[in-house]
Design a protein that fits this description.
By secondary structure, the protein is α/β, with parallel strands linked by helices. About 50% of the residues lie in helices and about 10% in strands. The structure holds Broken Fe4S4 cluster.
Length: about 650
C-alpha cells in the first residue's frame, strides 16, 4: 500500500503528481485552501436554520450558550443530523421514483430499448404486493408494479411496503418506538418541517423522526431502486471485469459514466457494443469504444454488464487529467462541480444528462427515456467525433489495473455458498455456527478527502479477512478493495484466515463480495434477513454476528445509510463522525441509548485498526450470546497511513 499522504492507491498518487506537474487543481488542493475547517460546523454546533443567525455555540464556554431563538447544542446538533438524513433519503428515493416511472414506461412500450429482463423477479415482487400475476401479460404487470411501488412515496395510509420483509422482531421494535415509515416523501417532508425554526426542539424526538426517515430509505427508496433495476436491467450474476485508471485505453474512444442512475448508462452499454457504433469509432481513427465508470454508475454497469471501473469518488478529476477521456457523462450525486475546471484543460467533453443536475459551464444533453437508445448512440458518436481532438502526446494513463469478480446479490451469493443443489443460507449459517466464519460485515460508503484515499477501507478489510470475516461491499469502498485485488477468488489464499479461505476455495468466490452501488445496501439488509430466516444464529438482525462500517464517509446519503443500518439492528462503525460530536446528549443517544430502542448502535472511531478490533469484539460478543465457539484473534499486519 502506498504511503503517500493523499492516497494509498499508486495509480491515484501517479495521476495526482501528473496533474500537479501541469498546475491542475484537484479536490486535495481545494481542501487545503479552505482550511481551517470550521470547528463549529464540524461539531454540528452551527445553526443556519433561521435568518437571525447563523448562531454558533461554543462547546467550551463555562456558561450555557444558546442560539438567538434559545435552541441549545442538543437541539441544534439533532436538527443538523436530521436534515442530513432527510437529504440522504431524498437522494436515494428520488432515484427510486425515477426507476418506478421507467418500469411503467417500459411496460407501456414507451421506453426505447428497455425491456423487463428479470421476469421472475417482476413476478415475485408483484406477488409480494398482492398483485394478480396469473393471466396478466408481463407488460401489464410491469405497469401495475411500477404504479403500486410509486404509492410508497405519497400514500396517506399504511406504511412503506417492503418493511414487511424485515424479521418480525425488527418490525416490533419499530412499532414500539413509533418509527414505522408511512410514506417516503412524507418522512422527508416531516424531517424538514420538524427542523424548521421553532418546531421540534427535543433531540430524541428529532432523532426518532430521522430514524423513521432513514428506514424509508433503506427499506423503501433504496430497496425499490435495487429491486426494480434488477427487474428492468436483469439481476446481476458473478461477472469478471477490471478496475482502476489503467483500464483507460490509449487507442480507443474512452467514455466514462459517473453518478448513480443506470437508466442512461445501461443504454450506453448496449450502444457501445453495436457494430455500427464500433465502425463509427474506427472511422475516426480509434480501435473501438471503451465504456467505463466512476462511483456508483460504474458499479451499476459493472454488476450487470461487466464494464470496467475507472475509479472511485476521489479519482473522478484524475481520470480526466489523464488526457485520455473523450466524454464524461454525469447524472446525479457525488459529481464534483470541479470537474468543469479540470475538463476545461483537456479535449474532454463533460455533459450533464439529468434535469435535476446541471453544472455551470457544462453542456446539458437532456436524457429522454422515450428515445433512450438514440440518445445513447448520439452521445457515443459525439464522443467518437471528439477522439480526433485528443492530444495523444500528452496522454498519461497510470498502468495500474486489477482483475475482479463482481455481481453478487442477496439471491445469488448464497446460492453459491449452498452449491447448485442447495440454494439456501444454511451453509452460510452453518459456517458461522461451526466457527469457520466469525461473521459477516458490510463495508460500504465513500472516499473523503479528510482521510488518506482508500486507506481506511483497505486497512479495515484486510484485518477482517485475516480474522475469518466474510466482507460484503458496495459503493466506493467496494472499488477500493477491488483495486487491491481482493475481489479475485485467489485473494482468499493470499489474505484470508483459514476458515474463510476454505469456504472461498470450495465455492470459488472472492473473500470480498461486490454487492453493487449505494442503493444496493438494501441487498445487505435482505441477506441479513435471510440469515435470520434460515435459523440458528439469532431471532432478529440485532442478534446476528454481523456489523457495518463506513470508514471514509463523505455524503449525507452515508449518514442515512448508517442510521437505517443501526435502526435495523446492525451496529455501525462510522467515520468521520456525522456532525453530532458537539452535543454530549446526541452523541450518547446515538452511541449507546439507541441500542435499547433498536438493538444496535453507532461507533464513531477514526482509526481503522481500532475499528477492526471493535468489529471483531462485537462479532465475538454476538457469538458468545448465541453460545457459539470462541474464535482466535489474528494480529493485524503492520501498516501505517
Ligand atoms: S458513489 S455516496 S462517494 S459511496 Fe455511491 Fe461513492 Fe459515497 Fe458517492
Amino acid at each position: 500500500m502506498s504511503q503517500h499522504p493523499i492516497s494509498s492507491d499508486p495509480a491515484t498518487v501517479k495521476a495526482h503528481q501528473h496533474a500537479r506537474e501541469q498546475n491542475l487543481t484537484t479536490v486535495w488542493e481545494r481542501h487545503e485552501a479552505v482550511k481551517p475547517i470550521c470547528a463549529f460546523g464540524d461539531l454540528g454546533l452551527c445553526c443556519t436554520i433561521c435568518y437571525m443567525g447563523p448562531c454558533r455555540i461554543d462547546p467550551f464556554s463555562a456558561e450555557e450558550i444558546r442560539g438567538a431563538c434559545g435552541a441549545g447544542r442538543d437541539t441544534i446538533s439533532a436538527r443538523n443530523f436530521t436534515r442530513a438524513v432527510a437529504a440522504g433519503t431524498a437522494a436515494h428515493s428520488d432515484h427510486a421514483r425515477g426507476i418506478c416511472h421507467t418500469l411503467i414506461e417500459t411496460g407501456q412500450g414507451k421506453a426505447q430499448g428497455y425491456r423487463v429482463m428479470d421476469l421472475d423477479k417482476l413476478k415475485r415482487v408483484a406477488d409480494e404486493h398482492g398483485l394478480k400475476t396469473a393471466d396478466v401479460s408481463f407488460a401489464d404487470l410491469a405497469v401495475r408494479l411500477g404504479q403500486r411501488l410509486l404509492e410508497n412515496f405519497g400514500q396517506s395510509e399504511g406504511s412503506v411496503s417492503f418493511l414487511k420483509r424485515a424479521p418480525k422482531g425488527q418490525q416490533e421494535r419499530w412499532e414500539r418506538a413509533g418509527v414505522l415509515p408511512r410514506a417516503i416523501d412524507r418522512e422527508v417532508v416531516e424531517c424538514l418541517h420538524r427542523t424548521h425554526e421553532g418546531v421540534d426542539a427535543e433531540y430524541r424526538s428529532l432523532i426518532l423522526q430521522a430514524v423513521r426517515c432513514a428506514l424509508a430509505d433503506g427499506w423503501g427508496g433504496s430497496m425499490i431502486a435495487t429491486e426494480l433495476q434488477d427487474v428492468i436491467f436483469g439481476s446481476p450474476r458473478p461477472i469478471r471485469s477490471r478496475v482502476n485508471l489503467g483500464i483507460l485505453k490509449k487507442d480507443q474512444v474512452n467514455v466514462v459514466v459517473h453518478g448513480h442512475e443506470p437508466v442512461l448508462s445501461e443504454m450506453l452499454g448496449v450502444a457501445a457494443r453495436e457494430p455500427q457504433m464500433l465502425e463509427y469509432a474506427r472511422s475516426k481513427g480509434a480501435e473501438g469504444i471503451n465504456l467505463s465508470g466512476i462511483c456508483c454508475t460504474a458499479n451499476e454497469i459493472l454488476m450487470r454488464q461487466g464494464f470496467p471501473v475507472a475509479g472511485n469518488f476521489l479519482q473522478q478529476e484524475l481520470a480526466i487529467s489523464t488526457g485520455a477521456i473523450e466524454m464524461m457523462v454525469v447524472d446525479v450525486q457525488c459529481v464534483m462541480p470541479g470537474l468543469q475546471q479540470m475538463a476545461s484543460h483537456f479535449h474532454t467533453k463533460l455533459i450533464t444528462t439529468s434535469d435535476k443536475a446541471r453544472i455551470p459551464g457544462i453542456e446539458h444533453v437532456p436524457f429522454n427515456e422515450h428515445e433512450a437508445l438514440d440518445c445513447a448512440r448520439s452521445i457515443l458518436k459525439n464522443a467518437a467525433d471528439n477522439f480526433v481532438r485528443r492530444n495523444q502526446a500528452s496522454v498519461d494513463i497510470p498502468e495500474e489495473v486489477m482483475d475482479l469478480v463482481a455481481g453478487f446479490t442477496a439471491e445469488n451469493t448464497f446460492h453459491h455458498l449452498g452449491g447448485t443443489f442447495r440454494s439456501t443460507y444454511r451453509p452460510l449459517n452453518d459456517a458461522i455456527m461451526s466457527g469457520r466464519l466469525r461473521g459477516v460485515v458490510g463495508v460500504v460508503g465513500c472516499n473523503n478527502v479528510r482521510v488518506q484515499h482508500d486507506y481506511n477501507h483497505k486497512t479495515l478489510v484486510e484485518e477482517l479477512l485475516r480474522n475469518d470475516v466474510l466482507v460484503v461491499e458496495t459503493g466506493c469502498a467496494a472499488i477500493a478493495c477491488a483495486k487491491e485485488g481482493w475481489m479475485r477468488p485467489e485473494a482468499a489464499r493470499e489474505i484470508a484466515g483459514k476458515g474463510l479461505q476454505e469456504i472461498c476455495e470450495v465455492v470459488g468466490i472472492p473473500p470480498v463480495l461486490h454487492m453493487g452501488s449505494c442503493v444496493d445496501n438494501s441487498r445487505i439488509l435482505i441477506a441479513c434477513t435471510e440469515m435470520v430466516r434460515e435459523g440458528g444464529i439469532g431471532e432478529d438482525l440485532s442478534q446476528l454476528p454481523v456489523a457495518a462500517a463506513a470508514v471514509e464517509a463523505m455524503s449525507e446519503k452515508a449518514v442515512a445509510i448508517g442510521l437505517y443500518a443501526v435502526a435495523s439492528g446492525i451496529t455501525t462503525f462510522f467515520s468521520p463522525a456525522p456532525r453530532v460530536l458537539g452535543s454530549p446528549a446526541v452523541y450518547e443517544y446515538l452511541t449507546q441509548g439507541i441500542e435499547k430502542d433498536f438493538g444496535a448502535h453507532w461507533v464513531f472511531e477514526a482509526d481503522p485498526h481500532e475499528v477492526a478490533r471493535g468489529i471483531i469484539a462485537h462479532l465475538d460478543q454476538k457469538r458468545t450470546a448465541l453460545k457459539l465457539e470462541p474464535m482466535k484473534y489474528q494480529q493485524p499486519l503492520a501498516r501505517t497511513a
